[in-house]
Amino acid sequence: MSLWSLVGLGIVVFVFFSFTRSLGKSVPIFKLMLLIAGLQWIVGPIIEYTFPVSTYRSIMYVDEMVYMSFIVPAYAAFVIASLLTMRSFSNFEIPIEKLKNYKNYGIMIFVIGFVFDLLSGSLPGSLAFFAFLIGNFKFAGAIILFFSEDKRLKNLSYVALVLLVARALQSAMFHDLVLWSVFFYMFWAIKNKPSRTKIYLTIFVGVISLNTLQTIKDIYRTQVWNGYQGNRVELFVGLFVDAIFYSGSNVQHLSAKDNNVRLNQGWIISAIMDEIPKRTEFQDGATIQEALSSAVLPRFLNPDKKKAGGRETFMKFTGLNLEEGTSMGISIIGEAYGNYNVYGGILFMGIWGWFLAWIWRGLLKRTKQNVLLLAFLPLIFLQVVKAETELVVVLNHLVKASIVVFLFFWATRQFLGWNFTPRTA
């Protein structure tokens, strides 16, 4: 293991303990973002370099020293700029307990989200993303109801989790299930104040469960997508139990090293570093400018607006081909290198960390006037916390989700007379 790898691992460990110390005290979505990035950009590649797996294409394309000498300083700039920008907010008191005073609003928000979730399949494609955002309001409503002193309403919040699991089993896509489960745990922790021991135990169980999910999801997905007609709950539970207790079973062919392929975003980033500038020139900010214009201007004002998906950018930056209909993200740190080279990429990651922390601070300040905003923070940062997504996806979601949420608050205040002024029971 190189010195750069050790330094990078140390930074990730620091972020991990900073994240766990914040659980039960705040809603550390921002630190979760930093942790996920460190795991996928540094820890996954370290495992791959130490225990290489000959997997088709999913290899590290450059030497460890070359990779880590860029990634670690860039990640460090991202972390340092973020945490320094939020330093004055380290003792910021989040008035989350006041959510219990807005149970009626919580019910309406939950119902609105549930209705849009049902309607999303029948709406035209141009409204798909809007319907997706409003459909996720049900989770914000569930978070508000979780703090209600009415046990019946509190139990209603668990319905959202059931819907989340049901949707994941139906679609065989589990990414949102994992993220929203972590978000819900953050709010559970701030209400129940678990001990450090319970937090670490929960994280350990969560890691084991996630590893098992990664082991079985391809088998489950293949059966579901091929028209499985049986009970999907029984199928999923059976595969899950089989993976945990029965060695040598048909779901044991994926080892821990194979699962690292899913954790390791570094193979894509290293492919970019191998491709640029050998065969493709640095983009000099071209995709950054596209992402900014795409986020700011609606499609009718920007007919050439870049579509999210990642296929075109992936092939251009890595030199690798993708089948039609397949998309992969190059990650913001990979995009930073592909546009600005090593030193420019490091500087960009520092600016990006400052920008996101500035947005986060602004949102936290607004919770003083509207505590309901706390329940919508996971939705606003849903794509931001993902380390594999490129800038156009992250900015589009961050901007549009913020607009939708604040327009919702404005509309309910103007037309329904909702009052968000902090109040007591």
Brief synopsis:
The protein is mainly alpha-helical. 68% of the residues lie in helices and 0% in strands.
Notes on the protein architecture:
It is globular, with a radius of gyration of 22 Å. It is built from 17 helices and no strands. Helix 2 (29-50) runs antiparallel to helix 3 (64-85), helix 2 packs across helix 11 and helix 7 (151-171) runs antiparallel to helix 8. With 425 residues, it is mostly helical. The model has no long low-confidence stretch (mean pLDDT 88). 68% of the residues lie in helices and 0% in strands. The chain starts with a helix and ends in a 10-residue tail after the last helix.
Characterize the overall form: globular
Termini separation (Å)? 57 Å
Total of helices = 17
Rg is: 22 Å
Helix percent band = 55-70%
Low-confidence sequence ranges: none
Tell how many strands the DSSP assignment holds: 0
The structure class reads mainly alpha
Oligomer: single chain
Largest sheet: none
Q: Which range does the strand content fall in?
A: under 5%
Residue-averaged pLDDT: 88
Helix and strand string, N-terminal first?
HHHHHHHHHHHHHHHHH
Question: What descriptive keywords fit this protein?
Answer:
0% strand, 425 residues, mainly alpha, single chain
